[in-house]
Amino acid sequence: MATKRDYYEILGVNKTDSAAELKKAYRKKALEFHPDRNKASDAEKKFKEVNQAYEVLSNQQKRQAYDQFGHAAFDPRSGFGDFGGTRTHRQGPSTYTYSTSGGGNPFADFGFDFSDPFEIFETFFGGGASPFGQRRPQKPHYSLKVSFMEAVKGTQKTIVHQGKQYTVKIPAGANDGTRINYADFTVSVDVLPHDTFKRDGYDVFIDHEIPFTNAILGTTAEIPTIDGNVKIKIKAGTQPGTMIRLRGQGIKHLRGAGRGDQYIRLIIKLPKSLNRQQKKLLQQLKDSF
């Protein structure tokens, strides 16, 4: 039996690359090997290979399983292939758990159909090309703008299609570019940026400033999360750029149980000017070391 190529190698990316970098690499490879554009004898095989790699690596749960177990994670004979139930694993100092209903297309509940690699190509490029040069009929497409928090929590929007009003349910955890297919049209989600929160997959990142004195002495800080403010303890001697992880405080997974994490990057705020007394105290502190 032929050995399967590494999915990261197929896309030409590194394990540390972000979801956006994966998507960019996928677009490039999909265009390169699409059989309607590339007439090489092995183009269709490579195109399917590229899409198979992206289908796994673009899904956070599947990517975690692949990083841990490789291709065995999707081999039914290995015991991991069905992704049923809940499993917890340790990787270094971290523990992660993934839970799904098991089997089937992980995107099916939200109108995705990535079982056919040529459908993936349509999703990203808006084309209808098949491997045989025929084009599928184009369905009308609508783009809905939603706020960051609407995408995180889920919401409902209305559209008018051929004179009839439809209610579109945006699932909690939707991201920029999430597409929902209906029988007569498709809808994609355009998520507006947030002033405080930044998103990477299902994880949330924020920057939080603290005075340098609090970094030195330690303090308690009130931190915004997508569920409201929480208080955290900042240890004495905290260094600039320290990252604090709030496990399970990120975004809900589109399918199955679980949430991402929130990461807080501490920015140490230094004073721009000091009065005479402050300078004297700092000089005394300096001399004490």
Model description:
It is a single chain. The chain has 289 residues and is α+β, with helices and mostly antiparallel strands. Strand 10 (219-225) and strand 11 form a beta hairpin. The protein is built from eight helices and 13 strands. A four-stranded mixed beta sheet has the order 8-9-13-12. It has a three-stranded mixed beta sheet with strand order 3-7-6. Among the domains are: 139-193, Urease metallochaperone UreE, N-terminal domain (HSP40/DNAj peptide-binding domain, Sandwich), CATH 2.60.260; 198-269, Urease metallochaperone UreE, N-terminal domain (HSP40/DNAj peptide-binding domain). The chain is 27% helix and 29% strand. The longest helix has 15 residues, at 19-33.
Q: What is the strand and helix layout of this fold?
A:
Blueprint: H1 7-11, H2 19-33, H3 43-57, H4 60-69, E1 84-91, E2 94-101, H5 117-125, E3 141-146, H6 148-153, E4 155-161, E5 164-170, E6 179-181, E7 186-191, E8 198-200, E9 203-211, H7 212-217, E10 219-225, E11 228-234, E12 243-246, E13 262-269, H8 276-287
Parallel strand pairs: 3-7, 9-13
Antiparallel strand pairs: 1-2, 4-5, 6-7, 8-9, 10-11, 12-13
Helix pairs in contact: 2-3, 3-5
